[in-house]
Design brief:
Helix content is about 35%, strand content about 20%. By secondary structure, it is of the alpha/beta class. It has a 7-stranded mixed sheet with strand order 16-15-21-22-23-20-24. A 6-stranded mixed sheet has the order 5-6-7-3-8-9, sandwiched between helices. Strands 18-11-10-19-25 form a 5-stranded parallel sheet.
């Protein structure tokens, strides 16, 4: 296996943004000494990894502010990671800011030698290559003119010529050629293709997606510092273009919303968040004749159930979502908006080199101990529990041991739980595990619910159907919106974090977050199952999701996502509330504030600081419809829907 020429491992770049203006150095020093200088943390890159082999050509794509240039500067050594490591094994030609080493008062002739010195070349080396540089830049007539009189295109030509006069092992190009004329851009592309054919490795940033497709074999898609997708350049670029087209359609709808607002049209409800809770309520309010506006801070609908079609595979962008319920009304409700398949969740667990079925059932126990009957297994577990003699569990480890014995705990609970919570099981409270699902049947169906499946075409289709005809605004922060549009709605349905609504006045509620590494693989089948858990703590991720298996896909390639559990920090996406005694007490205080808030209703996972399954979210929305709209949800029965 070839050694990587570039390894960027879990790189985070943090900048401190001043919250106030400081007019001079003296004022800065005084405020710093008095601890009055306040900064806001801004994460330009969030736990980004990139591994590049020699000779590969990688394109970095994303909208402005996504972190592309920051990553290149970090690899080039211009920026130092806040966390993570970067290892580069080769000489770099950085075309990030061409001419950054130029002196505006010096001539082009003088700047060639100056820029060469900045790049580490001797004067003798520069004299040897001087004519070659001038000829490529096509600036013979202007050699003795000051750089300050050059156009931006002329400066770029000179900078590119100096930077690429030697075939470096790594070429870093950051949208620097857009200022040149057509003929020069053509020469530059030919020079880069020549370098690539000679084994040079390329990192290339451009907003011209077609040029990334033509020049690069691989691509990395960044969005606000997060990796969205990495893999084959054409597949990643097509997925990016698809997302941008969706955004354009939504923006067009948003313009229509603004026109309506200017005319003085008022909404009955402002729904903050386009996840299941907000979307179900908005749909039912719309059906009841109410006007609703749904806003979301993200650039897509659906919250965490958002699915995106990549290479004809519906990718669960925020982790696996498997719909299951015993509530027939809820099941019939969602089937109005999508056709559900008969997917049965049967995950497997990997512990070191051993493979086990989940949930813990007779297949699991047979693999563990070679036992065949429920009576034998129950006796084995009883013996292990008795040997431990734990009467009052003091922590999660003792609680799990007292429920399932040592073997199940050590191989299938301990490592996975410690990765999820980021701490040793001995340091976690016992109430986190109230019971363990021990089943004494040969049944790998993870859920006991009567109805189960995945919507064909993904969950985004359901959200689009729910919000059909309803005004929507994406990329919209609630606080910013109400400052400008405070009189355009009667009530608010708020599904964001309740502590954020109150500006964290009582402190931050705690969450666990999840980071995803998604990549497309040139193979039809990677792991043979949609969900594979890794219960050994030494494996850094908790599980791998292979998305095509949710819908029994037969596509020629496959897409996988590795999930890494992480401690939540401001700026990250909160996933799982930490419902311990301390956080629940803090939430109760926030709920008291919420009760006094006029015309604002808090709901959903973040608004109620509670983990919900999808069916529970819909049930909660139904209850709000009943209380707020004084009507029952009308469900069209679909008797053809199969039961599990």
């Amino acid at each position: 296996m070839a050694k990587n020429i570039i390894d960027a491992d879990h790189v985070t770049i943090r900048f401190n943004l001043a919250n106030e203006k400081v007019n001079n150095l003296k004022e800065y020093a005084i405020k710093m000494a008095k601890h009055e200088l306040m900064f806001q943390e801004f994460f330009a890159l969030k736990d980004v990894s990139l591994h590049v082999k020699k000779g590969e050509a990688w394109g970095l794509i994303g909208t402005n502010g996504s972190g592309k240039s920051t990553l290149l500067k970090t690899i080039a050594g211009i920026l130092k990671p806040y966390t993570g490591k970067v290892k580069v094994r080769g000489r770099i030609a950085p075309l990030i800011e061409l001419g950054a080493g130029f002196d505006q008062e010096l001539t082009a002739r003088e700047n060639i030698f100056l820029n060469g010195a900045v790049l580490g070349h001797s004067r003798e080396f520069m004299e040897e290559h001087f004519d070659e540089i001038v000829e490529f830049a096509d600036l013979e007539k202007f050699l003795d003119s000051p750089i300050k009189n050059y156009s931006s295109g002329m400066k770029a030509r000179l900078g590119f010529s100096v930077a690429t006069m030697v075939d470096s092992e790594i070429l870093i190009v950051d949208e620097v050629l857009s200022v040149g004329d057509y003929q020069f851009r053509k020469k530059c592309n030919e020079r880069m293709e020549e370098m690539l054919s000679g084994g040079t490795t390329l990192l290339y940033v451009s907003h011209n997606i077609d040029s990334v497709k033509n020049l690069c074999t691989h691509a990395l898609w960044l969005d606000h510092g997060d990796v969205i997708m990495a893999g084959d350049a054409r597949e990643v670029c097509d997925a990016y273009n698809s997302r941008q087209e969706q955004i354009v359609r939504v923006v067009k709808k948003e313009k229509e919303v603004k026109k309506a607002q200017k005319k003085g049209n008022k909404y009955d409800y402002l729904v903050v968040g386009s996840g299941l809770f907000g979307s179900v309520f908005a749909r039912e309010a719309y059906q009841a004749g109410k006007r609703c506006l749904v806003i979301d801070k993200r650039d897509h609908l659906g919250g965490n159930i958002y699915t995106e079609k990549i290479s004809n595979i519906d990718v669960h962008k925020y982790g696996a979502h498997i719909f299951h319920t015993s509530n027939k009304e809820v099941w019939n409700y969602v089937n109005q908006f999508a056709e559900f398949n008969n997917y049965i969740n049967s995950p497997v667990a990997v512990y070191k080199d051993e493979l086990y079925n989940l949930p813990f059932n007779m297949n699991t126990f047979s693999k563990l101990w070679g036992l065949r009957t429920p009576a034998e297994v129950q006796e084995k577990i009883r013996q292990q529990i008795a040997e431990l003699n734990i009467t009052e569990p003091k922590n999660l480890e003792e609680q799990a041991l007292s429920l399932a014995g040592r073997d199940v705990y050590e191989k299938l609970v301990k490592g996975y739980t410690e990765k999820q919570w980021g701490r040793d099981c001995k340091d976690l409270p016992s109430f986190i595990i109230k019971r363990l699902p021990l089943r004494f049947t040969y049944d790998n169906n993870y859920f006991n619910d009567r109805y189960q499946g995945i919507p064909e075409g993904g969950y985004t289709k359901i959200i689009l159907e729910l919000l059909d005809g309803i005004d929507v605004k994406l990329n919209t922060d609630y606080k910013t919106f109400i400052k400008e549009n405070g009189q355009t709605f009667d009530k608010v349905i708020y599904t964001g974090p309740i502590d954020e609504y109150f500006d964290y006045c009582l402190g931050h509620l705690e969450y666990r977050s999840v980071r995803f590494e998604t990549e497309e693989l040139d193979m039809p089948n990677y792991q043979g199952n949609a969900v594979v858990n890794y219960t050994d703590r030494e494996v850094p991720y908790t599980r791998i999701i292979e998305h095509k298996h949710f819908e029994f896909g037969q596509q020629p390639t496959t897409i996988i996502s590795r999930e890494y559990s992480a401690e939540w920090k401001p700026g990250m996406e909160p996933y799982y509330p930490v419902n311990d005694e301390k956080n629940n007490a803090l939430f109760e205080k926030y709920r008291e504030l919420a009760a006094k808030e006029p015309n604002v209703i808090f709901g959903g996972r973040l608004g109620n600081y509670k983990y919900y399954n999808m069916d529970q979210v819909i049930e909660a929305a139904f209850e709000l419809v009943k209380q707020e709209l004084k009507r029952k949800v009308i469900v069209e029965t679909n008797e053809a829907v199969p039961e599990v």
